[in-house]
Structure formats: C-alpha cells, structure tokens
Amino acid sequence: MSEQRNTELGDFLRSRRAALTPTETGVPTYGTARRVPGLRREEVAQLAGVSVNYYTRIEQGESHQMSDSVMEAIANALRLDESERMHLLRLAWPAQVMRREAGPEMVRDTVLALVESNIDQAAIIVGRRTDLLGGNRLGFALLGIDRDARPNLTKHMFLEPTMRDLMPDWEAQARNAASYLRMATGELTDDPKLAELIGDLSIHSAEFARIWAAHPVAECLHAVREYDHPLVGRMTLNEESLRMPDDSGQRIIFSGAAPGSPSAERLKLLDSLVS
To answer: Which ranges carry the HTH cro/C1-type domain (predicted)?
Structure first.
C-alpha cells in the first residue's frame, strides 16, 4: 500500500503541474521549445523555493520529511484549491490522517428517521464509498432508483444509461462523482472494497478511466444541478451535502428548489406521483 500511495502522490503532483502553463504562473520560458504540456519539475521547484532534486524526490513519493512550509509552498506553486490541498496532505502524510474502519456501514435509526421525515426536499444518505444507504421517498424517485435498492452511486452514474438522460450535464456530474471518490481514497487507506470499486469502474467504463486518470479532487459540498426527469421534466435543484458529525464518512444530501419556482412545483408533482 505504501508503494501504491507513493505512486498516487507522484501521479497527483504531475497531473497538477501538467495543468499549469508558464504564462499562468509567470515562469519565464525565454522562447525555448517545450516538450511537456505544463510546468517542468524545475519550474515547480523554483516557484516553491526548493531544490530540483528535493522536489523530484517528493514526486517519487519520498515525502516523509516534508515540512509544513514545504507542503504549503508546493501547494501554492501548483495553485491547489482547498480540496486538493487536503488530498495532498493525505497522500504525503498518511500516518497523520485518521484511518476509517473499512467494514460494513451502518446508519443510525435516528438518521434514517430524520431523512425519511423530510417531505419538502429529496434526501439520500451516501456512504463513505458512495453507496446509497437510505433516503426518503422523493430522494429515490429523483434518481429513479427502487426504494429497496442500495446501489453504489458512482457505479450508477457511470454504468446506468438512464443517468445520461436524467442529467443534461452528465459529463460534469460524472466528474464530480469521480472527484469525490478520489477524496475517499485518501480517507479510506488500505480499503480493499474501495480498490475493487475503482478497479471495476476502470474496467467497465472508459469515461471513468479517462476522468480518473486526470486526478480530479473535490469535496462537492454544495451545487446547483439540472435534472430532466422522465416523469416531470426539467428541474433546477439546489444541493447541499452534510457530513455526519461523528465523522463516519457518511453524508446526507438534500436537493430542493427555490420556493414558488417551476422546479418546486415539479418536485411536488414527482412526490405525488410516487406516493
């Protein structure tokens, strides 16, 4: 697992420097021809104020002696956002990140009752590996999932054809799903079920493999999502994702519409159709 994590760290850093250009970062090129799509290692090292040899070793996974200041300097040089910085921390210092239990997930009855009692918004409970653990009637109806089913939502996004019809901006939503799964890899270290999930998706979905290779990372705590539901048509819903306070890795995702809007009326209609 240590070797795999070192590879992940190097791949992540390379993906981020490949996404930057000298023009964006103010690195002089002196008109020389470039053989790499983004920044070179020596240019990142220059921006971070470290030696090229030292940064090269970090890209090779030798991060055990990296200080807070060096971590911050590299994050700034690569212009990482908050989610990406947290992911870098988890990859570089896995021993300092709390590891979660990798066993079966359980949802407290009180949490299920809270979600099921919500009648104005679609609500679902998502596990640490993006498994659907529960929800209210409207939450299942919004995604077109049977109330007795408990699929993995990332698999559902990439492998279920109806999701492409349900979400007009499927490509963006698929990237969001992969981005959150990437965050989970930093939290669920040594989790064979998560590794199996990523392997299955990489084999069965070319789109997932393509997106995963770009190392997207995002927490996805809130969003505005478009739906084209087969029963009620187009809806624009505001999504809020709340992590469970006991830090179990589980989230409750609420999806609602602005009061009085056409989307709110369609959400009510959907609820009436499945009641």
So the answer is: 38-85
Q: What tens digit of pLDDT does each residue of 169-199 get?
A: 999 999 999 998 988 887 776 788 998 999 9
Total-model pTM: 0.74
Kindly state the average pLDDT of the residues 17-24. 83
Q: How many CB atoms lie within 10 A of CB 270?
A: 21
DSSP line for 121-171:
SEEEEE-TTSBEEEE-HHHHHHHT--TT---BHHHHHHH-THHHHH-TTHH
152: which 2 tokens? 């993995």
Tokens of 157: 């996004």
| Residue 195 DSSP code | H
Could you tell me the CA-to-CA distances from 48 to 55, 56, 61, 74, 78 in Å, in that order?
Answer: 9, 12, 17, 5, 9
Q: What is the pLDDT of residue 63?
A: 61
Answer yes or no: are the C-beta atoms of 205 and 158 closer than 8 Å: yes
97 φψ region: left (φ > 0), alpha (ψ -120 to 50), beta (else): beta
CB atoms within 10 A of CB 17: 23
DSSP 231: T
Predicted local confidence at residue 32, as pLDDT:
63
3-state secondary structure of 271: helix
Determine contact, residues 251/181, Cβ cutoff 8 Å: no
Q: Which residue has the tokens 């990142």?
A: 44
